[in-house]
Amino acid sequence: MSTKAKNSTSPNNSRSVQHLISRILVSGIIVLSILGCEQDNAITDLQTNTPIFDLDLFEQNIIDYINAGGDTPVGWAYTISKDGNLSRSNAFGKARTAADGTLNFTPQKEINVASVSKFYTAIAAMQLLEANNLTIEDKINTWLPDTWVKGPGVSELTFKDLLKHESGLQSTNTNFDTTLGYEGLQNCIQTGVVNSTTRNYLNVNFALFRVLIPSLWSNLEGSPAIDIENDANTQFMYLLYMQQHVFDPLSLPLVGCVPEDRETATLYYNVNNPNNGGNGQYYGSWNNKSGGGGYFMTTMEMAKVNAYFEHTEVLVSNEQKAIMKLHRLGMDTADPIDEIHGNYYSKAGSIGTSNDPTTSQGVQTQIVMFPFNGIDCVVVMNSQGVTLQGTISLRQMIYNAYNNAWVQP
């Protein structure tokens, strides 16, 4: 309508313009009326005491809850993002104590992210399943090395079974070099499905993707030559795919499963080590056992993956993301009791030298996404044995910090 008024040469042009202006003014009044109603509704919502999320309180809760037991981690850091934008970050303590040559911990300091690696591996797996016109319900059998002997039930295993830890495979979560190395994976497949196919958290389920991801990649036009019968080649190609298709798109160069130089790398402690002068643990290369763990990343880098996964389609399509969330692929299981503001999506990581909280040295990591109000969070610490407020679970502590950050207006 406005275009016709502008181009008209009719003697009634001025009258048409006046008419148009009148309509615009009327429309403006209607719009203002709608806005006024929305504002009234907002006031009404406030009057009904609807809780409001307090970002500052969430941050303070995290700090307070981690320090609640008086045995602060040797070194730790956190990030909080809102709608994909970094809002808060900080770090405390040491990456290396005086016994190992004092070095401060920072959000830019690399740490072994442990099983948070599974989340990144799941992203890559979903990319390749989509690229190969496959679904999580498809069988893994044809994507395994031809020379591997397939034990009972392997022919029926699906990608979903691995991604949900429901494979029924036989393995242990100890002696990773043996159980998660190439020969260990081969032996696991030969033993086959011998356990219940209910959820049983095993690193081998994701370590197998160190072979499956190169295998799926090799089927795509233009992919590099990949020999999945060769251990070194599967290691290299898994890491190469992850770099090119998970980290490079986010401008995160040189992300891998090899730590910084031994003299400057983050070390891993028990909270009691600074009191007794004990040395920290050093984690070497995880290339030979990667897939389910072993990436060395900064807290900031982890936050960036969260942001791009949750708020864009750079890593996976919205459809694939929905599937991952529905089945918690590469994520922790749901916790309906504590997920009181929509669904929470998280992944924990932990490596320790023993089950004794007073002596075990290791790392704890946690990522959490709260889609209800666009909050993403990362917390990492290079210590075990920390007393958290009301729980021994880092995930539970973050959930509590988030839930308790909703306040009455």
From TrEMBL:
Pfam families: Beta-lactamase. This is CubicO group peptidase (Beta-lactamase class C family). PANTHER family: BETA-LACTAMASE-RELATED. It comes from the Bacteria. Gene3D superfamilies: DD-peptidase/beta-lactamase superfamily. SUPFAM superfamilies: beta-lactamase/transpeptidase-like. Residues 75-383 form the Beta-lactamase-related domain.
